[in-house]
Amino acid sequence: MSHQAAEEPSPEGAPTPSSQQAAAVSEPTRLTVGTGTGEGGEQLGYDVLVGNGLLARLPEMIGPRAERVLVIHPRALRATGDVVREDLENAGYRAVVAEIPDAEEGKHIQVAAFCWQVLGQNGFTRSDAVVSVGGGAVTDAAGFVAATWLRGVRVVHMPTTLLGMVDAAVGGKTGINTAEGKNLVGAFHQPTGVLADLDTLLTLPRNELVAGLAEVVKCGFIADERILEIIEEAPDQAQNPHSPRLRELIERAIAVKARVVSGDPQESGAREALNYGHTLAHAIELAERYQWRHGAAVSVGMVFAAELARSMGRLDDATADRHLMILSALGLPTTYRDDRWNQLLEGIRRDKKNRGDQLRFVLLSGLGQPTTVEIPDASILYATYQEIAAAPETGAIQL
Ligand SMILES: NC(=O)c1ccc[n+]([C@@H]2O[C@H](COP(=O)([O-])OP(=O)(O)OC[C@H]3O[C@@H](n4cnc5c(N)ncnc54)[C@H](O)[C@@H]3O)[C@@H](O)[C@H]2O)c1
Question: Which amino acid positions bind NAD(+), per UniProt (predicted)?
């Protein structure tokens, strides 16, 4: 065993030893993400397990051939990382830990270089594996390390945030940030498995959980109305990590993402639907220098997209109004400051969905009916923004 840290260790942040909390273990739900067919016609894909106390399932996800496993986790999750390492050693692997900086600080080329160094010094070969333990920042960074080491080794994700479970760990997008922007460098690299252990959510701060729910709501609007009904029936339960309702929401959101990415593993078309609410959200994140949580920005972005679709005559009033009701019931922001339009428009113009000068938005033409729409004239965006904007004191409330 060896344990290496990218920087000097800091005090313990969030101990979440999943295997120790696994007393009440119920059968996990298994969702399969299909990613096409192999050269021999075999079905390619991987499983996402959702449940409690899933650590014992890790060897099954890593597969039989690996001898060495690199566990990558942030400092804040050192206790969980240590439990994972111990379990792997008990299962007969040679487990090595790479502790990386927290959150976006971990998505840095120097952190990737540190992980490559650990892999090299410990003789990792093509048949060995990487395990990520952490939120979306860690799945992105560890996924990138796995995608690039020896041109690709296996990676299993153990997401510990709601956003990580329903979004970042599923779909195979990996990436790091550069000085010029977020996620500009990366690769598609599908995991061999994902363990969404609900026990890890017990220590997640409430605002992180609520931010993750914005992506769950998105899945409801683009593909699964039952998600919206569950939240409407009991918005408090949707935020309770002990609740079976939250578990059902997570499973349903993963199922939506799995269906969409299975049909479009390289993001060439259908996957655009997952960007519902994200065009304005990215512009808000940029305007806020990434001090807003992604989910909070996506929440405002969905309200905007619904208003835009309504004003273009594409979406009925009831579905448009439902956005505001559900998102505010969860405590998510639904408005943004009215003095930032020019900056937001600049961010919207930089969005990756645009082709040339043509502005494009994912809009609904009904529940479960997302389409990418070309916006002929930015003036309609401005008029719509007036409908959702508020004075800076009330329109810039982060989670
Ligand atoms: N690849 C994709 O498809 C995809 C999709 C969505 C988002 N992302 C990426 O995901 C990242 C955001 O992910 P995130 O929202 O999970 O943020 P994060 O990974 O930064 O985690 C948020 C915070 O929660 C802490 N944390 C994590 N798990 C915890 C736990 N169980 N208990 C207590 N604290 C815990 C982390 O240490 C961190 O401080 C962004 O970098 C984004 O680009 C990627």
Answer: 102-107, 136-140, 160-161, 173, 182, 200-203
